[in-house]
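User:
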Amino acid sequence: MNPFTFQTTPNVLFEAGAPKRIAALVSEFCARRILLVTDKGVRGAGLTQDAEENLAVSCDLTVFEDMVADPPAHVVEAAVTLCREKRVEAVVSIGGGSALDTAKLVAYLARSDDRLDDVFGVM
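Assistant: Predicted structure:
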């Protein structure tokens, strides 16, 4: 495994209407190709609609909605493959813990020579 430093986000935005501001937040990273990690339930309920519409105006948005609770390796690997194919520059997520945690892992693996087996283990 290649050594790396993990620094979590310096802030979390929690407010009404936050999805409408997501493009402005992403623009701070100068990213134009974005992967949104979510699940079909969250997306089907319309919870990603404002974010998707907002991002699509200024970014090349790809949505990965095949998340499931405690995703098996093939789901994570599919998201990493999509991320690489689309040359994604930033990964964002809307959803529960599995979507959020998977988005972080996908962002790392998509830019790394590491494989999922290199960083994932079961105790």
